[in-house]
Write a structure and sequence with these properties.
This protein is of the alpha+beta class and about 525 residues long. About 35% of the residues lie in helices and about 20% in strands. The protein contains 15 helices and 23 strands. Helix 1 links the parallel strand 1 and strand 2. The longest helix is centred in the last third of the chain and has 23 residues. It is globular, with a radius of gyration of 22 Å. About 0% of the residues have low confidence.
Length: about 525
């Protein structure tokens, strides 16, 4: 029996499995942890969808998505996403998702950054959790019938392929070290690159290892330089606590002190949208204030108590539990923090990658967001992208060659031993300090040279697992590609800001596409949708 292999059990992976099962196609859902613990549960704000009205339309949703992304995304793909968004909301509501409701008993909407109208459907400040409950329940129905087979506790090791044809992949159990092989088409839904950077808002269990392994295997990676810094996070040990954009959507205000008095800098400089400007704009404004030694504050003390206790209850709980702070009485001290990776595995409109039989969706793919993501579009992109990837996998009727796995994983390595932990910490340090909100050629090239040097000196840690040793090498390689992409884009656009090239340049209104040929990394600029998939 042929199965389609899905790597990752978050929103994108579950939607792929759901779509396959509804069409009576078997899948195996492989992940290192259960769906209840994945990154998608941490999404707080909502899901964008524009129902046709006097003030809104899917066309406006698409245009505002493209504008926020500085017109780097595939326009047709974005329009398809926006057109399908209302159906997605209706499907989730019918499936039992407990949206916050308006006075008419229908799913309510809130304001979100970079959008001129309210179109973000939400569940208080716990949208991701409720979405995942809904998707888990839907997929579990098909697990009971055998259409979906779930394998939890497994880490991705490598692809099986014959030339440019994917034939399956190999996983290793995180605890036992036992390897297992699956044959078939592969849908990747493994999330972003948080673990390569550390100190992000997301789970560091999203290590980037799958994307890095695929890149090392020759799969193209696009727009790696575009890293979203969320404007309202609080540094904690090892990561940043996210304060959802919903606070600003409900009327929360950013300020810094000027001569001892609050200066509402976003409202003063951008009176039309103020605190709801796109995230890249706010993060850049905050960065400039931080360079002056200012502290940024998020104020929700003035909001209606009912809004605080219902729509923003999760924020109150997080601030109380992790910060020992009551935001109904004191403003929240915030800084920009790494939040989302707009770049990822290159995919076409149907979520096919540059390797036949391999598909990608969710944050690990580059589609929809361009140079900057609108809040509320990430869950939407994961749901829609997972569905489209599954449809493409079903539509592609080529036969999968039966290829044996001839690779032998070695637990010991001759030669001088290194330290895996030191290697990961060094990689994180280099990437954090070179791919910040504002970059320049000198620091980018110095960081690239440092990673290249680390790669040359990289040794094997016999006390670490085969997976960890492989991950370190591949993530270093992908880190080099991110730096090379940032260096090649000699302009400022969206989340990519260059102090030495501060203006947007129309010559660079293209995607960066990084490829590794087994020896060197090559960076090219290509219009969205231009790359041939196979």
């Amino acid at each position: 029996m042929e199965e389609i292999i899905i790597i990752g059990a978050g929103a994108a992976g579950l939607c792929a499995a759901w779509e396959l099962a509804k069409n009576h196609v078997h899948s195996v859902l492989v992940s290192d942890m259960p769906s209840e613990r994945v990154q998608s549960n941490m999404a707080e704000g909502g899901i964008n969808a524009a129902f046709l009205s006097n003030t809104d339309s899917p066309e406006l949703h698409a245009e505002e998505t493209l504008r926020a992304g500085r017109y780097l995304a595939d326009a047709q793909a974005v329009h398809d996403l926006a057109e399908n968004a209302p159906n997605i909301i209706e499907q989730l509501f019918s499936a039992g998702m407990s949206f916050s409701l308006n006075s008419d008993g229908k799913p309510d909407v809130r304001a979100f950054g970079g959008q001129s109208v309210k179109r973000t459907f939400y569940v208080a400040s716990n949208t991701g959790k409720q979405l995942m409950h809904t998707l888990i329940d839907q997929v579990r129905r098909y697990e009971c019938t055998g259409l979906v087979r779930r394998m939890t506790g497994y880490l991705f090791l490598r692809l099986l392929r014959k030339e440019e044809q994917v034939c399956g992949c190999v996983f290793v159990h995180a605890n036992t070290g036992k390897e297992i092989t699956f044959h078939g088409k592969v849908i990747v839904a493994s999330g972003g690159l948080n673990g390569m950077f550390g100190n992000a808002t997301g789970s560091v269990r999203n290590t980037g290892a799958v994307s890095a392994s695929l890149f090392a295997d020759g799969v193209a990676f696009a727009n790696g330089e575009f890293i979203q810094y969320h404007p309202t996070t609080v540094p904690m040990h090892g990561k940043h606590l996210l304060i959802t954009e919903a606070v600003r959507g409900e009327g929360g205000r950013l300020f810094a002190l000027q001569d001892g008095k609050p200066s509402y800098f976003m409202e003063e400089k951008y009176p039309e949208l103020g605190n709801l400007m796109p995230r890249d704009v706010i993060a850049r404004e905050e960065w400039m204030l931080l360079q002056q030694g200012k502290q940024i504050w998020l104020d929700m003390r003035h909001l209606d108590k009912n809004i605080q206790q219902t729509k923003l209850r999760g924020v109150l709980n997080d601030c109380s539990q992790f910060l020992s702070l009551d935001p109904t009485k004191k403003p929240i001290p915030v800084v920009p923090g790494i939040h989302y990776f707009m770049g990822g595995i290159w995919v076409d409109r149907q979520h096919r990658t540059t390797m036949r039989g391999l598909y990608a969706s969710g944050e690990c793919a580059c589609q929809y967001h361009g140079a900057n993501r609108l809040g509320g579009n990430s869950l939407l992109g994961a749901i829609y992208g997972g569905t489209i990837a599954a449809q493409s996998a079903m539509a592609d009727s080529f036969k999968i060659p039966q290829v044996e796995d001839t690779h032998i994983s070695k637990s010991v390595h001759a030669g001088k031993d290194g330290c895996y932990v030191d290697g990961i910490l060094n990689l994180r340090h280099v990437l954090q300090h070179s791919l910040g909100i504002v970059r320049e050629e000198r620091t980018l090239q110095a960081a690239l040279a440092e990673l290249q040097n680390l790669q040359e000196q990289m040794t094997y840690d016999a006390s670490a697992s085969v997976y960890e040793n492989q991950m370190l090498q591949n993530c270093n390689l992908l880190g080099q590609a991110l730096l090379m992409s940032a260096d090649a884009r000699k302009e400022s656009r969206g989340a990519h800001n260059r102090s030495d090239f501060p203006e947007e340049n129309s010559d660079y209104q293209k995607q960066t596409v990084a490829r590794f040929d087994g020896k060197v990394i090559n960076i090219t600029f290509e219009s969205a949708g231009e790359t041939n998939a196979h």
